[in-house]
Write a sequence for this structure.
């Protein structure tokens, strides 16, 4: 399968990428690792007329200790997240989950920024960053702005990124070695999660987020409320499907997804020691 | 667009359409047909090659993304008539049946041992999760990789 024709532009800097985005508007798509975008283009589900390759912006490829948080360049690859000693210490949920994205070949090429910006509710990292309360830093023609991850996802494959903005950094609060768990349920190795759960306690507050239970990654606020009021893991997990809108597809019916959400939330609460 | 990349140590320059996938570039432009295209949806791993020393699925990379990179295909592993230790391990341990997945399996396995020279059986299985064998010959594939890892010098040439 070959994608439809497009014009290819390679950005040499973030500023150049933003200038190209401004020039081409919503006809253009950014290409990082390409492991979300290219499969869609091959299936002709996406046909951008211009691809702006930001994959070589190595100054956006870093994992740094920034005091109260970890700063991750948007072009950092999953393999780098998976093997980062700094993340293993300060944000083990993220490095662990990054090691479960796709397969090794995908992790060698795919980037955290690409995964978050693609806004696929079935992806692992959006829910993980949501559970951790991360912040997305984006750069546009008029400068830089920060978006709380809870405000970042708007709809299916739709985020708060404007057409002329580039995600540059992801900020993750340090977790100080408190409890966490990542549960991913799929039928075959390397598949997307049929349902997934990321749970973490960071600096005294608890975050639980769901993969593939709606059109965006979702915070399980009912579960967190139950945990705060002293519920057991089993009791709290009964609230896992509140405000979800699971879809039925070839892998799972709505009822089965909701069942999985309850089971996986319970396991996540037990493994992390959150309840 | 004109691109130049090193393929198995030899510089290749060609004018390609931006939408040309690396797998097709290697097979049709460079003429190296050892890299198989299986599912063409980045699931099966038959098209696995190395880009700058790391395994990648060449059906999900544009040739223009590999511009300036060093690419290794299955044809680049052997040293003349001497097989790479991983190729020999697959031969000696019956690590292939129909052979279609084999180039990708071998390339993924070499990359796996580069990153983890002494994997457990479970680590080999997880490390090859991106490669499918429709003969279901996984048992001997895993055995081959473990045999290669156990050799002196492991997967290094």
């Amino acid at each position: 399968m070959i994608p439809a024709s497009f014009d290819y532009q390679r950005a040499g800097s973030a500023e150049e990428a933003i200038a190209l985005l401004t020039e081409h508007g919503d006809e253009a798509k950014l290409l990082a690792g390409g492991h979300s975008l290219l499969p869609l283009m091959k299936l002709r589900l996406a046909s951008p007329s211009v691809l702006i390759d930001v994959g070589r912006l190595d100054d956006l490829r870093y994992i740094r200790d920034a005091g109260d948080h970890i700063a991750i360049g948007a072009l950092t690859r999953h393999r780098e997240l998976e093997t980062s000693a700094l993340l293993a210490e300060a944000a083990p949920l993220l490095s662990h989950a990054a090691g479960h994205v796709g397969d090794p070949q995908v992790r060698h090429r795919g980037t955290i920024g690409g995964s978050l910006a693609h806004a696929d509710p079935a992806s692992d990292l959006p829910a993980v960053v949501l559970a951790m309360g991360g912040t997305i830093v984006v750069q546009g023609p008029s400068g830089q702005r920060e978006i709380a991850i809870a405000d970042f996802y708007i709809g299916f494959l739709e985020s708060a990124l404007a057409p002329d903005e580039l995600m540059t950094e992801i900020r993750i609060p340090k977790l100080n070695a408190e409890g966490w768990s990542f549960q991913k349920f799929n039928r075959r190795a390397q598949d997307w999660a049929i349902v997934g759960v990321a749970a973490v306690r960071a600096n005294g507050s608890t975050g639980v987020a769901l993969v593939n239970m709606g059109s965006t990654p979702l915070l399980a606020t009912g579960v967190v409320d139950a945990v705060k009021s002293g519920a057991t893991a089993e009791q709290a997990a009964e609230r896992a499907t509140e405000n979800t809108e699971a879809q039925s597809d070839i892998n799972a019916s709505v009822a089965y997804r909701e069942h999985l959400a309850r089971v996986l939330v319970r396991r996540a609460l037990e493994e992390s020691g959150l309840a | 667009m004109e691109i130049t990349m090193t393929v198995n140590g030899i510089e290749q320059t060609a004018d390609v359409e931006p939408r040309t996938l690396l797998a097709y570039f290697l097979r049709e432009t460079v003429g190296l047909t050892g890299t198989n295209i299986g599912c063409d949806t980045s699931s099966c791993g038959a098209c696995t090659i190395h880009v700058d020393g790391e395994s990648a699925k060449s059906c999900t990379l544009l040739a223009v993304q590999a511009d300036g990179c060093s690419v290794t295909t299955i044809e680049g592993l052997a040293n003349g008539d001497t097989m790479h230790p991983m190729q020999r391990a697959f031969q000696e341990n019956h690590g292939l049946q129909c052979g279609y997945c084999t180039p990708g399996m071998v390339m993924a396995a070499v990359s796996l041992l580069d990153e983890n020279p002494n994997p457990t059986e479970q680590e080999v299985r997880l490390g090859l999760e991106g490669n499918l064998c429709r003969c279901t010959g996984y048992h001997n594939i895993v055995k081959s990789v473990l045999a290669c890892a156990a050799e002196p010098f492991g997967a290094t040439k």
Observations:
- Chain B has five helices and five strands.
- The helical segments of chain B are 22-29, 85-92, 102-115, 121-127, 138-150.
